[in-house]
Amino acid sequence: MSAFLITPLIASLLLIAASGDPFYQNYYVTWGGDRAQVLQNGDLLTLSLDSFSGSGFQSSNEYLFAKIDMQMKLVPRNSAGTLSSQGQSHDEIDFEFLGNLSGDPYILHTNVFCQGQGNREQQFYLWFDPTADFHNYTILWNPHFILFLVDGIPIREFKNLESRGIPFPKTQGMRVYSSLWDADDWATRGGLVKTDWTQAPFIASYKGFRANGCVWLNANSNCNNNNDDVNTWLGQQQLDYASQGQMKWVQNNYMIYNYCSDYKRFPQGFPPECYVTTNN
Ligand SMILES: *[C@@H]1O[C@H](CO)[C@@H](O)[C@H](O)[C@H]1NC(C)=O
Ligand SMILES: *[C@@H]1O[C@H](CO)[C@@H](O)[C@H](O)[C@H]1NC(C)=O
């Protein structure tokens, strides 16, 4: 029985109860052939990258609003040049992990694309070694906001400010995409450090394939009703006080780039959402 054909309320209860679905239930491998390995009856997946190819997978469904959780353990040791991404497109909500030399920090790169326009990058260091163990990376996308969370801690909020004329993705379904690929022209120290292919294959691991979302099929959503309960991921309208404090802690201590403070890039003035303090 698919977890998606049920109401959002029950889906959010499942979120607490379920430890994750097998990979096959909601995802399939899209490229890289046997560089993507599904192990442990679908509880674990590894993606690998060598000098010929990377690999990736995607969700079978498209969603219009979803809470996507994934546990990931990133490429260990020298991962310079590698890029592990986790996100949703056509409008696009991205988590990208830019690898580095042994001992140097990964960069977590986030972006929100709307109607084909991105340029809303924020970057962070992590407060742990993402290669030592699995950690939870979550994208919550509902009609009110988009949240990026790491181990349940919100690191970025992009509010729906359509009432102020700022576009918000909510008309197109999105799929979940994950991949591991070579991006050594820009990923590590802006492209200065190249991928060391003698270290290949590079391997990242994924588990906890939960996908709670409103399935978008033939321009219809399966959550047309019941989406105003603020206790569910779909109805939640704002961060509580404690979560705002956590986000502030991350942004004060670990944010290394924010488009909303890049004067060089926006000499004519920042994009409008930057003037609404909640997005910074
Ligand atoms: C990630 O989420 C799972 C399932 O909720 C939980 O068991 C695990 O402790 C979490 N891991 C971290 C590092 O927060
Ligand atoms: C890699 O390490 C260098 C040196 O610590 C750092 O400046 C950079 O932000 C790190 N991350 C990436 C992806 O380049």
TrEMBL record:
GO terms for molecular function: hydrolase activity, hydrolyzing O-glycosyl compounds; xyloglucan:xyloglucosyl transferase activity. Contains at least one intrachain disulfide bond essential for its enzymatic activity. CDD domains: GH16_XET. Its EC number is 2.4.1.207. It is an enzyme of class 2 (transferase). Glycans are attached at N100. It comes from the Eukaryota. Keywords: Apoplast, Cell wall, Cell wall biogenesis/degradation, Disulfide bond, Glycoprotein, Glycosidase, Hydrolase, Secreted, Signal, Transferase. Catalyzes xyloglucan endohydrolysis (XEH) and/or endotransglycosylation (XET). Cleaves and religates xyloglucan polymers, an essential constituent of the primary cell wall, and thereby participates in cell wall construction of growing tissues. PANTHER family: XYLOGLUCAN ENDOTRANSGLUCOSYLASE/HYDROLASE PROTEIN 8-RELATED (PTHR31062). This is Xyloglucan endotransglucosylase/hydrolase. It comes from Senna tora.
